[in-house]
Amino acid sequence: MPSKNEYYSKVILNDNAATDDSLAGREIQVIIGSATKMAESDLIALASEITRHTRMNQGWSTVQTTVESMDQQELPPLGAPTHTEGGVNTWIVE
Questions:
Q1: With contact defined as beta carbons under 8 Å apart, do 33 and 86 qualify?
Q2: 27, 38, 55: which is closest to 90 by C-alpha?
Q3: Phi/psi class of residue 25: alpha, beta or left (left: φ > 0; alpha: ψ in -120 to 50)?
Q4: Which pick of 43, 68, 71, 92 has the fewest CB atoms within 10 Å?
């Protein structure tokens, strides 16, 4: 459940190098909430780590990332975190 006392960021991972038109533009969105503001490089590393298995199974060849800050009122319904580590919560949004 999201907390009002956390910083939220959305990391969007894209594979734009797909070889089949039906796979073009594959995307995974990860929302990360933490008590302290995280560096963009740390956000990307965490999102890449928790989605690595999925991306490998789907045959991604490249990963392009975008990081956006989010206010709590911008968050979609999240439910329970997908991954929790050291006070940092992550949700994979389909």
A1: no
A2: 38
A3: left
A4: 71
